[in-house]
């Protein structure tokens, strides 16, 4: 780990940099992962490819010794890098090369014919989209939200049954649980719009 203020390499568990005296994590002139100078407004380090705002986690042996390749240009990457420093594509983006051996692959291939690894979704940083419609989820939430239909639609059956039980429970609770259900639906509607609710595979809903 390196000081973000001066680029000095830091000792493990250090709380301040002995060179500049700045607390660990303060500053924005150097990359904490590789120690190279970065632009103060940069999101990624162009030297090591790491996302500058993500927490620093000491490298484990498995990751340090493992080679991965950019699927867009076949450039060798650090397995912790978020982007390829050669072409700028996010890790996992592209479908022209194998991430494990770096050899060329067919764009539609599920398996690399050179080394046998599965190609889809491994080491990917690219945002994928699910198959469930966000518009449909919004409509179901507005029209039938208190019955939990929108939750059933996205594959969250547990939440769906809870909403349905709260609504029906209003019969014996003088409407108290129905009110709770209504508030829940409003929150769910907001969560659907801001992508906090995903499909059963954890993929974002798409319009």
UniProtKB/TrEMBL annotation:
**What is the topology of this protein in the membrane according to its UniProt annotation?**
Multi-pass membrane protein
Task: Give the organism the record lists.
Answer: Paraclostridium bifermentans (Clostridium bifermentans)
Where does the UniProt annotation locate this protein? Membrane
Query: In the record, what lineage is assigned to the organism producing the protein?
Result: Bacteria, Bacillati, Bacillota, Clostridia, Peptostreptococcales
Q: What protein am I looking at?
A: TM2 domain-containing protein
Q: Which PANTHER family match?
A: BETA-AMYLOID BINDING PROTEIN-RELATED (PTHR21016), TM2 DOMAIN-CONTAINING PROTEIN DDB_G0277895-RELATED (PTHR21016:SF25)
* UniProt keyword list: Membrane, Transmembrane, Transmembrane helix
Pfam families to which the protein is assigned, alphabetical: DZR, TM2
Q: Which GO terms describe its cellular component?
A: membrane
Give every DZANK-type domain span: 3-49
Ranges where the TM2 domain occurs: 131-189
The membrane spanning regions, by residue number, are 135-154, 160-187
